[in-house]
Amino acid sequence: MVSARPVTVQPMGELPDSYPLPGLPEHVTIYEVGPRDGLQAETRLVDTATKIEFIRRLRTTGLTTIEATSFVSPTWVPQLADATEVLSGIGAPEGFRHPVLVPNQRGMDRALEAGATEIAIFVSATETFAQKNLATTVDGAIETAGSVARQASEAGIPVRGYVSMCFGDPWEGRVPLGRVVDVVRRLADLGCRTISLGDTIGVATPGHVRALLDALGNAGIAMDRLALHLHDTYGQALAGVLEGLRCGITEFDAAAGGLGGCPFAKSATGNLATEDLVWMLTGLGVETGVDLDALVQISGWMAEQLGRPSPSRVVKALYRESAPDPLF
Ligand code: HMG
Ligand code: MG
E strands along the chain, which residues? Predict the structure, then answer.
């Protein structure tokens, strides 16, 4: 017989209690990529005003570094064809950084005209993805990125570097650590302040994260020049972040609401959700400066604009109660 006794559920607050682990940093930077990496994979066009509103709202959460858009070919990524309008529409309030992705000289010209003050160049650790994503070779991509980076340095514009397919490639399979180290070193030599290690298809496991960071450390790359850019395809992203923290990484890329993917990589799904990252870091007592509740509301709002629920576990847990539509 089933007992009729009511089950009492312990109500949770909107933040986990803090139980720090030894050896972790006190503070990390979250590099928000939702408006760029998140939206680039959306096939239904999001209007420019919504993109601007998304970034304006994100600025109210304590996030200070928000990648705004991409000056890539609009034929390749129609969703971000309005890069100029988005960048000028969000303005440049003090205290915020809005880097933009630049693939080549044409992109750099457009970004400068639109008033970009910070850029990110991107290359691949694998030949197949260099072709699929940039229509060139690894060497060709680094050469183009190099001339863009030199121009940016002359203009006093900070440059971030991304390396895609650092952990696995859907066409080539396993990516040797040495190949990633080589590409990261070349971006470091180009003067990139930070180099973000992209797990474009989300296959990294925590031991793999450590192995790559050890290999980079042994090659003389300081951990404070690296960031982790983990996609959550196989649910491993937070485990990778924890291992990254243990190795001394203090910058992590994430997308509000877990938006995203890469239109040019089979099986790339959403980025690590910023909310999931903030939840774990808060529980670990690592400061992010981000107001989780405010962020959840914004990602819930954005999910409604896109017409489907957010894949973020934290957004699912916390937004549901306040959502006007039962779908969310
Ligand atoms: P291509 O077809 O070889 O370009 O593509 P092209 O140089 O032959 O030019 C063809 C036409 O595109 C020309 O116009 C150019 O002017 C124009 P036409 O003469 O035919 O009228 N064009 C441009 N227009 C506007 N802005 C530009 C631009 N460049 C050329 N910048 C290209 C080469 C690099 C352009 C193309 O491959 C491209 O845009 N790729 C970007 C793809 C992309 O955005 N991928 C997603 C971002 S990377 C990512 O998500 C990974 C990351 O998140 C980390 C991770 O997860 O791993 C960063
Ligand atoms: Mg990405």
Answer: 29-32, 65-66, 69-70, 100-101, 119-124, 159-164, 168-169, 173-174, 194-199, 226-230, 251-254
262 is catalytic: yes
Handedness of CA 197, 52, 308, 16 (dihedral sign): positive
Residues with CB under 6 A from ligand 1: 37, 40, 70-77, 103-104, 106-107, 110, 122, 133-135, 162, 164, 198, 200, 229, 262, 264
| pLDDT tens-place string over residues 39-95 | 998 989 999 999 999 999 999 999 999 999 999 999 999 999 999 999 999 999 999
Mean pLDDT of the chain: 93
Q: Which of 25, 43, 41 is nearest to 33 (CA)?
A: 41
Has this prediction a pTM greater than 0.85?
yes
